[in-house]
Fold each of these.
Amino acid sequence: MSEMDGNHDGQKPKGVFSTLMADGEWLYLKGEYKKAISSYTAALTLKPGDKSCLVGRARCHLKMGLSENALQDAEASLKEDKSYFEGLYQKAEALYYMGEFEFALVFYHRGQKLRPQVQEFRLGIQKAQEAIENCVGSPSSAKLEIKGDLSFLQRDEERAQPSAAVQHLRTDRKQQSQKTPKSERTTKQLLGEFYSDKKYLEKLLEDEDLVKGRTKGGERLQDVIQSCLTYLDTCTEFWSQEKPVCAQKRRRSGNPRRGAPPEPVQFLLTSLDDIDAELTSGNAEASLKKAEGVMKVVRGWSEREVPNKRELLGSLHSCIGNALMELGDMDRALEHHHKDLELAEECKLPDGVSRALDNIGRIHAQTGRFSLAIQFWEKKIPEVRGGLERTWLFHEIGWCYLELERHEEARAYGVRCAAAADDIADEKWQMNAHVLVAQSQLKLGNVESCVSHFEEALTRARLQEDTSAVPVILKALDEARRHLPQ
């Protein structure tokens, strides 16, 4: 009897969802986006709200030019987990193609801070900044570019609400620009040199003939000008919390704090971007030097000037630790990542805790201290939110157990890895998971199961046309078959 025939309780077979997801991915790769959307939609009827499925469908919508549909799917994928980085990327992409470059920039930055190793976020930041400059158009107003995610120095992630702001802009942009709790004098003090840009844009908005025009890309000039004004209003609100006017007056009266730059927020955002850029480009020494220099500056500030000073110090310890890892100085790297963990726990920052546990586990695994790697990585499991990260983590823990010849535990984590990979329909990790289970089963003497898992891994490798993995798995499969009973 087939699985379908045996399913009398009305539920869909367990494998149908994974099949529909795999079909959607395959159709997407072939460029058949409409059919892929149908597959993802069918999969969502089985598992409503599945994050990976929503992200997959969002990608297809974008390819078809349906940016608003893509935004809806991306936001739905973030409903339960606002730090789901695949969803953040698709949301940023949708906003970018809708012409909401400032809000796209915010989400590209947020994603990069969660997953600095994902190159797409860096490229997104670059193209969003360039788009903002191109929209403004003149050298004087090009000063409007303010690099960085404005929510970076905020603990309350909902303070800015860029998604809600996008929806509000569609219905009443003019009302949004006029909504400011600050007096004109206060706004002028907070914006500084940007205040003249703000007044100039407001004057342009009054020119009815001008605002009816469109850019070369087809965008209404009214929308472009209004989005820039909204961005400056967001900056005003943010800076009012980060650098109160009373503090500015005190500095002007002759009591400046030595060593603190005039714009701490901008200094930090630029510095952290530079540190990450150096490491990403392979220049670990320059990244280390910059991070250590910025740390000296931040340590000289009071928590009154920078309320989340300890959180920033944790990020800098993480940057220094990562640079030291690249340079091979594992002992010093470990010290900095432990300091990052300590500060994240003090500040009650789940993402910071997860980041530090991840890095500490990596160092122990790379230096052959597999028991310690497992210890820290297993602490990380409750902090994991994304399906891809969960899959990777289960695989690495299982691999450590395999190295320790604890084969039962290795098999258990291999099975968990396979299930997690099925949930996100990632064939590469499905292949890796089946290889891990196969190796564990062979050590446990379960040869038939071992062969079965190697065969499954081989199928996945061939579907991906992975020319490096196929011969390796074939060789392992042949050796395993020799142990089958004759």
Amino acid sequence: MAWKGLHLSRPARLAIADNQIVVAQDDGEVRVALEDVAYVVLDAPHATLTSTLLSACMDAGVVIVSVDQRHTPNGVTLPFHSHHRQAGVAAMQIALGEPFKKRCWQRIIVAKIENQAAHLESLGRDAQALRAMAKLVGSGDPDNVEARAARNYWRALYEDFTRDDARDLRNKMMNYGYAVARAGVARALVAFGLLPAFGVHHASVTNAFNLVDDILEPFRPFVDARASLRAKDREKNSELTIEDRRAMAGVLLADAVVGRETVSLLVASEKAAESLVRAMEGSSAALLRLPAFLAKKGLPP
């Protein structure tokens, strides 16, 4: 089972040999078993790969993330749908009724707010207000409790913080981590025969990843936790370093709780996708299994 992510921050030549990804750089060569890799982040301006490797990655369900000149993830390469019940799952997804989708969104937002609260508690902050808000989320979140919880969360997490400030190091790191987590969720949904474009809440006609953005919500506090840890005692408008990008690219390997298991976020994304299919089949949003933040006060995620 795939359990690794590769983050390439220096010039490299990638190829496939003996079912291994071969990473050749000026100072040597590294080989990684293809079956162990879930995602590759090409965060280097002079990284090249062969078409044979690209094809092998698609066959193996490996996601490839590209970045722009500012080292911001700007694209993801996903395999064609290869689930054995692709047409059946897709038909079931497209036919979902609004009541079911609203109950799924309710469950997603409750999980997100509870994870935000757990993150604050891991830092020794008061999260009683967030815990109370999580209980107020109705089917479809008609009162937009999510937005109210977000305002409370950011105020409790940071002083002098604006989420859309592109110069802020914390935003730079979170945006990088969100993009990597988004790729991991997309990979999982496709693997279980789901169509990323058709969401349970997000419904933009210009977004090919509406369902991905739905399921991603409870994953965001894990990214926030890693960013807040790295940004501590740093200048607000510092540049994003290679070490920052490498750390945020590894967010899918952070621990999470799903049910009674402690697993990586990568595995949690797979469990979420699998459980969504089961929820659709059983017409029960209660079957949706989402990651819970592992709150160990004083310990990094």
Amino acid sequence: MADKTAKEHLAHIAEAMKDIDFVMLNTHTKDGQIGARPMSNNRQVDYDGDSYYFTWADSLMAKDIEKNPKVGLSVQGAPKESGAPGIFIALEGDAEIVRDKAEFEKHWVKDLERWFEDGTDTEGLVMLHVHATRCAYWDGEDEGDFDID
């Protein structure tokens, strides 16, 4: 396998993440444990490794992030028809709690109304913007472990 640049690795995992709707978002809890929650990224993953998740402002996850913005994302893709196991991705990053409705609208998809009935007007709605800083992945054929600038 030829050495890839971080940009080439990131393009590979960003493309894979677009086909994976749910990730496990891991936070540091108030007592130092790791809290993991399934979250939908709405298949919106920027090339630069950023991803977006909607939740409630008063959720434990949001409170964890307010205290410590360092998060982890665990992602697993479906097995391939070729028999390859699919992709496994571990991301580390910094989460920001966004309260700006204009930003909500940039990342909103209709399927979110299942959880937030009033759409971007839902009281108590926040968006988590996770900026990935480090990534490791393996897809049965290729692997990478790199920093994201």
